[in-house]
UniProtKB/TrEMBL annotation:
<comment type="function">
    <text>Catalyzes the depolymerization of both polygalacturonate and pectins of methyl esterification degree from 22 to 89%, with an endo mode of action. In contrast to the majority of pectate lyases, displays high activity on highly methylated pectins.</text>
</comment>
<keyword id="KW-0964">Secreted</keyword>
<dbReference type="InterPro" id="IPR004898">
    <property type="entry name" value="Pectate_lyase_PlyH/PlyE-like"/>
</dbReference>
<protein>
    <recommendedName>
        <fullName>Pectate lyase</fullName>
        <ecNumber>4.2.2.2</ecNumber>
    </recommendedName>
</protein>
<dbReference type="InterPro" id="IPR012334">
    <property type="entry name" value="Pectin_lyas_fold"/>
</dbReference>
<dbReference type="GO" id="GO:0016829">
    <property type="term" value="F:lyase activity"/>
</dbReference>
<comment type="similarity">
    <text>Belongs to the polysaccharide lyase 3 family.</text>
</comment>
<keyword id="KW-0106">Calcium</keyword>
<feature type="signal peptide">
    <location>
        <begin position="1"/>
        <end position="34"/>
    </location>
</feature>
<dbReference type="Pfam" id="PF03211">
    <property type="entry name" value="Pectate_lyase"/>
</dbReference>
<keyword id="KW-0456">Lyase</keyword>
<dbReference type="InterPro" id="IPR011050">
    <property type="entry name" value="Pectin_lyase_fold/virulence"/>
</dbReference>
<keyword id="KW-0732">Signal</keyword>
Amino acid sequence: MFKTVKKRWRAGVVAVAALSLGMGALVYTQGASAATFPTATGTTKLTATKAVSGSFDGGLKRFVGSGALGTSGQDEGQDPLFTLADGATLKNVIIGSPAADGVHCLGSCTISNVWWENVGEDAATFKGGANAKYTVTGGAANGADDKVFQHNGGGALTVSNFAVSDFGKLYRSCGNCKTQFKRNVVLKNITATAPGSVLAGINSNLGDTATLSGITITGDSKKKIAVCVTFKGNKTGAEPAKLTTQTAATGGDGTNCKFSTSNITYK
């Protein structure tokens, strides 16, 4: 059944780096309490997925999907607004609502200074092979009822200088894809603003690793956001079993979840 999900805009998203936008600089200071998303220079409505090979610079325009692509909700199988070919770069883009299934990387890719105002199904999905390398740098995501970054293919993802607020999981290694891989994620210089559930969800039985550093968590006085959660991944499509939950208080296990208590700061 179709489920309508109402999401909230949180103006308090905190960006975590000084970002040069090419049209002047907008500076966001790590730990600031009232940073906002950049102002869009215009709006473009996409009626079909935009394929990117090489590099696409959106000039900080807002891109929104049509009903044909999907919605702002969690329906499975929605189309992305952008597909990135192997080696492609997407930069200086604001993704508005409806965002459908965001961005799909079909191989190695770079996502630079991309802002999701209200995440739809997922913000970005990584679908490359075992040796793919994906990079997300700068930008932010708001209002992800489930996942921000979904890792369905193989390879390694690095996310740096990124902010997230009002989210389920910042990163999830696919727990029940028909083809499974050992996956690696690095999360560094991240600001996460509550409410939120998990920073990194990985499949320890498949050898996944999550390495976290420079993590700032704001608005989470009861420390409900889990830093790293391990699951037992499978190929059957069944819901994966949760194995462990690792927090700022416990630190990581050093094998699959790699972080120390000093890597997590609460504000």
